[in-house]
Structure formats: C-alpha cells, structure tokens
Write the structure tokens for this entry.
Amino acid sequence: MEKIIKFLTSFKLACVLLLLLFLHTWFMTLEQVDNGLYASSLKYFSWKSLYVIPDFRINGKLLPIILPGAYWVCVALFINMLAGGVIKIRKGWKKIGVIISHFGILLLLLGGFITHHFETRGNMALYEDESSNFAQHYHDHSIEISLLDEQGLAQEIYLFNNDFISAIKKAGTEAVTLTHTELPFTLQASHYLKNCRPRQVGPVAAGDTPKADGYALFAVTDETADEANFNGCYVNPSVGEPFLLFTGAYNPHVINHEGKNYAIALRKSIWKMPFTIKLDDFNAEFFQNGLPKRFESYIQRIEGTVSNQVKIYMNHPMRYQGYTFFQASWGPQGSKPTDRLFTVFEVVKNPSDQWPLYSILVTTAGLLLHFGVMLTSFILRQTKQKKAQ
C-alpha cells in the first residue's frame, strides 16, 4: 500500500500525465483539420475512450501509438495533485501558497469534469424583430410527433429524445419500436444514417436499402463540422405506409389516424429558455479581405412584462440565469448590404462556466503568495547573515 500511495503522489507521475495531455492536445489538433473539432474531441476526451490510437502517419503509414484516454489521464492527474499536492505535502506557512495553487488546478480539472457531463450547447438564429425562447442543440436529435388541429397547428407534442436516436443508431438495420402511452400507433425506426440524402429510386435500384414512396436515403461523406450533417432514417408505422425521416426535409410527414393528423419530423433537439430574446438590430462589418471585423446584436431580454436592453458582440457575451449567449455567426452568407440579415447566437448552459476564471485567480494568488513568502524569507536570511558578519 505504501508503494501504491508513493506512486500516486509522485512528482514523476505528474510529469508523465502532463506529457500525455500535451500529446493528446497535439494529436487532436492535427486530426480536427480533417475530422472536425466535435468528432476529434469525442475521440480523445470522452469518458468512453479508455484508450486512443492517434491517426498519425509518416509516408502514409499509421504509427502504432496507443495512449490512455485523456479523460482518464485528467482523473489520474486530479488524484495525483489532491493526494500529493494537498494531502501529503509537508504543511507549514512556507507551503501555503503552493497548496492554494494546487487547489486552483484542482478546481480547473473539476470544472472540466462538470462541463463534459453537464454542459448543453446549441444555437439560436433570429432575424430583426423576431423573438424566440428556445435554442436548438448542435448535435443531439429527436423525433417529434405533433397532434395537429384543424388549422394545422400543433396541439400536443410528443418527443423521442436523443436516447432513442442513440438506440436506433446502435441497432443498425434492426428496427427499434417507439411507443408512447398517449399515441394510438407505434413507429419502427431503422437504418439510421449520420449524413445522407434522399434520392428517387427504381424498384431494384436501391438494393437492400429500404424504400418509401419511391425514395431511399443514401449515405454521403460526413461533414467536417458535425452540425452540418443531415441525419435520416427509415420508419415503418403501425398505421399507414412506411416513410423516410430526414433533417433536411421542408415539411414533416403526416399520418392520419381516426380523423386526427399527426406530423412526424426528425430534427435537432430543442431546449426552452426561461426568458425570451427579441432581436431589435444587428450590424456586421468586415475588413477589406473579407474577414469579420465586428458583429453586434441589440436585443431585448423579456421576462413576463419586464424587458431589458442588452448588447451582445464579439468576445462580449450575455450571461444570465446560468445561460451564456455568444455572438457566433450571421447570415445569409453572400448577402448584399440591402438584404435582411439574421444573427446566430451560440447558447451555452454550463454550471462551471466561470470556473476556469476562478481557477486562474486562485492559482495566481497562490503563486504570488508563495513567491512573496520565498522572497521575504530570502531577504530575512540575507539580513541576518550581514548582521552576523
């Protein structure tokens, strides 16, 4: 047990773990050029990745490099710093700054853990004078079934969230049955594709690919940016004919059952805000080379009868009630100065949003305190030696 504790608290182990994190960051940065940031970060930093094989090639040959998953490297580093830098460290007034600095680094690692498991990230697009109280998730999808009234408006909405989508993906060509206690029919979904396009096919042109109403979904190369992919799947309902769900479809598929219409769509998951955002004005300026110079959105944050004016611009987000709104993009691309523009906010809900800032402040305070203590100790020693002479 002593040897285990000595190993877990050793400075050598800390150096090895930091070197591994450097390698993970380096390899991930290289891979995200071809695979995108989202896919690369999942590969290297997900808790599901016990080990990682970097796609690092020399002269076209893949080098056999195997690294432990970065998530678990961070867990080991947290244990190492907690045990060696806080619990086991020799206590005394000269070590107070070092202990505080270790607490700052532990706070940073803990904030990364919370972000990884509990952060929600999406976007909200608004034209001027438009308002919204929901954001659209970047990566998660859901199957949405709406009971329509006589005017075609949704009365009730039933959702099969991203957990059901993950089950359909995992099942492959096998059908997953989707049931809801308040729906009079079931859906069997299968053949989920991450990026696809619908094409008209003949009787045998699609081969084993399931067809619906003369169309089939065909896989295309995944986009580097994961949010740019168009998902799709094949659905066989218990009532009516089979159909295709496709995130790029303009209209949902409608099933009529017992005189009631149900609209069914596959789309990015949405999450509701506790307040409404209304875009009053949006301005965009660019340098002569076309690079963005300044994006500004003037909004109203509305809660009931209370409205607050807020300006959101590049590197100056709005933080409110645990939500952060960043000025992310604009559109439509290639528009003229007279065209109507829309703004795109990146919406983030992260319980540890400000923890990196707190970590830097705590670590800096600890280091300054430590350097101050050491400098004071040095000056006192020098003064004592001069008096002794």
User: Anything to note?
Assistant: The longest strand covers residues 260-286.
